[in-house]
Amino acid sequence: xxxxxxxxxxxxxxxxxxxxxxxxxxxxxxxxxxxxxxxxxxxxxxxxxxxxxxxxxxxxxxxxxxxxxxxxxxxxxxxxxxxxxxxxxxxxxxxxxxxxxxxxxxxxxxxxxxxxxxxxxxxxxxxxxxxxxxxxxxxxxxxxxxxxxxxxxxxxxxxxxxxxxxxxxxxxxxxxxxxxxxxxxxxxxxxxxxxxxxxxxxxxxxxxxxxxxxxxxxxxxxxxxxxxxxxxxxxxxxxxxxxxxxxxxxxxxxxxxxxxxxxxxxxxxxxxxxxxxxxxxxxxxxxxxxxxxxxxxxxxxxxxxxxxxxxxxxxxxxxxxxxxxxxxxxxxxxxxxxxxxxxxxxxxxxxxxxxxxxxxxxxxxxxxxxxxxxxxxxxxxxxxxxxxxxxxxxxxxxxxxxxxxxxxxxxxxxxxxxxxxxxxxxxxxxxxxxxxxxxxxxxxxxxxxxxxxxxxxxxxxxxxxxxxxxxxxxxxxxxxxxxxxxxxxxxxxxxxxxxxxxxxxxxxxxxxxxxxxxxxxxxxxxxxxxxxxxxxxxxxxxxxxxxxxxxxxxxxxxxxxxxxxxxxxxxxxxxxxxxxxxxxxxxxxxxxxxxxxxxxxxxxxxxxxxxxxxxxxxxxxxxxxxxxxxxxxxxxxxxxxxxxxxxxxxxxxxxxxxxxxxxxxxxxxxxxxxxxxxxxxxxxxxxxxxxxxxxxxxxxxxxxxxxxxxxxxxxxxxxxxxxxxxxxxxxxxxxxxxxxxxxxxxxxxxxxxxxxxxxxxxxxxxxxxxxxxxxxxxxxxxxxxxxxxxxxxxxxxxxxxxxxxxxxxxxxxxxxxxxxxxxxxxxxxxxxxxxxxxxxxxxxxxxxxxxxxxxxxxxxxxxxxxxxxxxxxxxxxxxxxxxxxxxxxxxxxxxxxxxxxxxxxxxxxxxxxxxxxxxxxxxxxxxxxxxxxxxxxxxxxxxxxxxxxxxxxxxxxxxxxxxxxxxxxxxxxxxxxxxxxxxxxxxxxxxxxxxxxxxxxxxxxxxxxxxxxxxxxxxxxxxxxx
Length: 1026
What we know:
Blueprint: H1 4-19, E1 63-68, E2 77-82, E3 89-93, E4 97-101, E5 110-114, E6 128-139, H2 143-146, E7 148-157, E8 169-176, E9 184-195, E10 205-207, E11 213-216, E12 241-245, E13 274-277, E14 282-287, E15 294-298, E16 304-310, E17 321-322, E18 325-326, E19 343-346, E20 353-358, E21 371-375, E22 381-390, E23 401-407, E24 418-423, E25 429-433, E26 439-444, E27 464-466, E28 471-472, E29 477-479, E30 491-497, E31 504-511, E32 522-525, E33 530-542, E34 545-558, E35 563-570, E36 577-579, E37 585-598, E38 601-614, H3 617-623, H4 636-639, H5 653-659, E39 663-666, E40 672-673, H6 696-708, H7 763-769, H8 786-798, H9 823-835, H10 840-851, H11 881-885, H12 891-898, E41 910-911, E42 914-915, H13 925-928, H14 931-939, E43 951-956, E44 961-969, E45 973-977, E46 983-987, E47 991-996, H15 1012-1023
Parallel strand pairs: 31-39
Antiparallel strand pairs: 1-26, 2-3, 3-4, 4-5, 6-7, 7-8, 8-9, 10-11, 11-12, 12-13, 14-15, 15-16, 16-19, 17-18, 20-21, 21-22, 22-23, 24-25, 25-26, 27-28, 29-30, 30-33, 31-32, 33-34, 34-35, 35-36, 37-38, 39-40, 41-42, 43-44, 43-47, 44-45, 45-46
Helix pairs in contact: 6-8, 12-15
InterPro entries: 6-blade_b-propeller_TolB-like, Cyt_c-like_dom, Cyt_c-like_dom_sf, Glc/Sorbosone_DH, Haem-bd_dom_put, Quinoprot_gluc/sorb_DH_b-prop
GO molecular function, one term: metal ion binding
Protein name: Glucose/L-sorbosone dehydrogenase, distantly related to bacterial beta-galactosidase
C-alpha cells in the first residue's frame, strides 16, 4: 500500500475524533481497514455453534498425571524423600511440617516432625525468633543401622534485626525413633553445617553413591536486582554452590569433614566444601541411582531456565551469565571456567524450573534413562533424553564424552504446578502440586490419538460462513484495536469467536487465574474454546497493478488450559487457506519497491521480493505469552473505542460487548457489575492510534506497547535488562530513559537505550530503523516502519531539556555521499528509499555504494533496499534456516567454499590434513551433528560454544585489550590464541581483568554474503564429513 495512504490514515483518524460517531465509514488506511459486517441482528447476540476448532492437530501426551494417596493432602508441599529399609515416603511442607506415609493407596499421612511446634527443642540461635521454611530431607545410606536423617531449614530473624542471619540456613542431623509410624526426635538435633539465610536458599539434600552428602545453595537473595551479594562467582562463602561433605567424620570445630578429592581443596579464599558453583537458585537436584550423575534444575532470572549435569569443579556461570545471556559480565570469574548448561529453556516455555530424576523404574521401560523434570510456572513436564558424543559438546566433559540433547517431548498435559519430584525405592516417580497439596504419579494416557478432525483448511474451522468472501459465521463478530502492530505493511482484520453464548470476563481488579502463572494477576478471563482471529493482507504486484491479497489467517485458541496459535496460509486464488505445519513456513511475494503519486493516485515503481514468514506454533507463544496475558489485541485498552461498522450512533466497543452479552464485568468480591456505559468507559485506559489526535507521548508509548511490550516486560523474555515498555509504566520506570545499553551500542556516540532529545544516540531508535540481526522487533517484521519511526524520533526529541523539535534534512542527491558514513547521515536516505522519495539515478548510485560497505551499522540501514544480484539474494544479516534446509546442497561446491580464502573457514578448522586447528576439528563433524544443528552453528556461532574453545576478553593495566582462547595461564603469564591463530603472551602482573566472552571467535554474519544455495552447498559438505 502506498505511503500516501499513511497520510490519509492520519486525516481519517483526526476527523473521526472530531465528528465522532457520525462517521460511518472512515477512509481505508494502514491503521484502519473497512470492517467486516456482523451476520445476524446487530442488536441481539447470536450464538456461535459451528466451531470445529477443538483439541489439537498434534497427538496428546503419552502419559497423564494420576493422583495417588487420595487420603493425603498437604499445605504447600516442597519435597519428597524416600528412606532405606522402608517403603514409606516422606513429604515436607514449606512451613516446616514433615509427614510420612506408607506406600499404599489408602495411606494417611503421619506427622514426622513439626519444626514450628518443636522449635523450643531445637538448638537455639540468638538472632532468630522461629522457623522460616523447610527445604530438604534425606536419610543416611546406613539409616537402618544409625537411624540418622538430615534436615535443611531456615530461621526467621527477630524483628528489628538488621541484615540476614549469617547462619540462618541449617543442615542438621536428627535421630529417628524406631516406632511405627516413625518420628524425628527434635531434641537430638546436631547442627552439621550452616550458611547465610534469605531468598534463594537451595537447601536440597542427597547422598551420592560415594556416601557423601551433597547440599544445594542459592545466591541468598530475591530476584531483583540479580545477585546483589555478588556471591555467584565468589567462592569464599558457601552460597550459589553444590557442597559435598563427609558427615561420617568430623574435623576441628566442624561436625563434618571435607573429602580429600573435593576440587578446590587448598585454594586460597575458596571454601573447600564446594563441589561446583555458579548457581542462581538450584531448585531440586537428584542423583542418578545407576550412574551416580548429579542433576540440578537451576531457576533462571529473566530469560532462561537451566538444567545441569553437574561436574566436579564446574562453574555454571551465575551471575556473569544466565545460561548464554550475560548478566553481570564485569565481575571477576571464579576459580574455574564457565560451563554452559546442558539444557536452556526460554521463558516462552518455562519460567521456574523444577529439577527431576533420571527414570530408573520398571513401570515404563520406554522412559528408562530419560531425565524427567518440569516447570512450576508453565506446568509442563518433559522427558529429556540425551546421547553421548565426543568431548566438546554443550555440556562438561567426562572421560572424553559429553551429552547432547536427543529429544525432549512433553509427556503430560500441563496442568500440575510441580514443586518437587521424588522416587520410591523401586525408582517409580512421584510429584507434588504446590497449589492443591496433592501427590501424583505417571500413568499411560488413554485419551487416544490426535484430533484427526482438526481443521486443516480455514473453511473447515466453522469461523466463516463464506471463507472466500471472508464472511464470518453467525455469532462471530469483528473487533477493532486502537493501536496496530507493524507487520511489514500488512493490514489486519480481527474477529472474536466465543462458543455458544459464553462470555469474556473483565475483572475490576486483576487476579490470579486457575491454571495460569502464579505470579501474575490477569485482567480478563476467556471461556473454553475461545478463538481470536486475525487475517493479514498485503498489497502485491500483479503485473503493473497492485492488488490486495489475503496472506495469512492466524487463530489463537484457548482450550481451557492453554492458548495455542495456528496459522493458515491463503491460496493464490484466495478461495481458502491451509493449515501451516507446526514448524512454520515461508513464501515470497512480489511487491512494489517504491512508488509515486500520478494524477492523484499511487503508482508503484520497481519490484522487490517480500518473503513472508508463517511463524511456528512455538513462535506464536513467544509474543502471546502468559506475562502479556496471551490476547494482545483483545484487551480493554485496545477495545476502548468506537467500532467501525456501518450506521451512526454506534456505541463504544466495550459498551457493545458488555450490553450485548459478549462480555461481563466482575468486581473484586465476584459480584456482577453493570455493563460499561459511555460515561464509565471514559475512566478506562485506551491505547492511542499512531496517526490519531492523541498527544505525541500517548501515541509513542502506545506504539512501543503494541510492538514491544509483550516481550519487553518482566518475565516476557525480552532481554538481559528488564525493560518495562507497558504503556501503564511511568517512563522513568521503563529502564530505557537515559540508560546505557548492555547489548551493544552499534557504534552510536555516547549511546543510550533512549537518549532524551537525541534519536541518533538512541539504540532503541536504531534497532527499529535497521535491517538484519539486532533489529527490533525480531518477530513479526523484518522491515523498518518509517511512519512509526517518524513518531518515535519526534517523541525522543521532545524528551530533551529543553524539548527539541524534530525535522529531517532533505535526502538530496547532492548530500548522498555523506549518507554512508553515520546513522545520523544515513537515516534520512534510508527513509526516503522506503517511502519511494528517492529514485532514479540518485537511488541507484546510493545503493551501489551501500552494497560495497562492509557489514556493520551503516550498511544495515540499507540492506533491505539493495538490489538482488545474479544468483539470488544473499542471506544477509537475518538468514532463514528453513529456506536453506529445504534446498539440496552440492558437497563439491561446498568444499570449494570451505577452503576459499574469503570465507576463512580453514583458518580456524581442520578437515583431514587441511586447515588449522584453532577451533574444533570438523573431519568427523557429520557423525555428531544433525543437518539442522550444523546449520545453526554456522548461522549462530555464539549460541553454542564448546568449553575448551570459549573465548576470553583480556584487559591489561595499560588499557590494551585482547581476545582469544586461553592456551595457558599461571602467575607469570597468560597465553591466548587469537582469531588469526597467533599466540599472544601477556605478562601476568600486567593483567587487569580476564572475562569470558559471550561471543565465539567465529564472527557473526560469516554466512551473510552467501546465497541460500551456497549455504546449502557448504552445509552438505560438512554433513558428509563422517
